[in-house]
Amino acid sequence: MSSKEKITGFFSIFNPIDGYFVTPLLIICNLLIFIAMIYTGTHFLFPDIQDLLDWGANYRPFTVDGQWWRLLVSCFLHIGILHLLFNMYALFYIGLLLEPYLGKARFLAAYLISGIAASIASIWWNGMVVSAGASGAIFGMYGVFLALLSTNLVDKSIRKSLFTSIGVFVVYNLVNGLNPNNGVDNAAHIGGLLTGFVLGYGFVPSLKNLKIGYSNFQQLGE
Predict the structure, then answer these.
(1) Which of 14, 55, 96, 134 is most buried, by the most CB atoms less than 10 A from its CB?
(2) Could you tell me what percent of the chain has a pLDDT over 90?
(3) Calculated CA dihedral for residues 111, 112, 117, 121, nearest 10 degrees
């Protein structure tokens, strides 16, 4: 049974299972941090900039002044509940599809590396902008999957439909981010996406070895 078939209800989204282990833990972590922010007085719809900075949002003057931890911490902060819900839905979707292919260690490593790279891209491109959110890391996971979909690791029967749906998601959000009034950190999105794309190709050799090993195991067991 695939991990997708095991998601039978709302609360099962938060239940770590085989093939869907890291994703729910990341979702829970993001939710708990947001709840903690609200509990300490941060507005749940329109948080103040100072509150975001206090919690670790990415801001070039602070980050490059030695507070490098903001590059990672900011990936777990969200600017209001709508921002959180959109990002968690996107994370749930890509995690359900991608984590079974990558496994726990690769999935978590790709997520964290993409998130940090997205934060670096943000402070490199933006000046006095306060940024936060998991979207850079999530775009990285979409980049990983796009890379894998260009190989034969994913079954040919579903490769085209997945490539189309994920490609539409990526293009739509990048185009939407071109509007300066939307408040979208497109630099982080692009930085995360490109990092994930490179990581995806970097994972290919080891994933092919795993696939070959698993095929041999099946043949021996028949």
Answers:
(1) 134
(2) 69
(3) 80
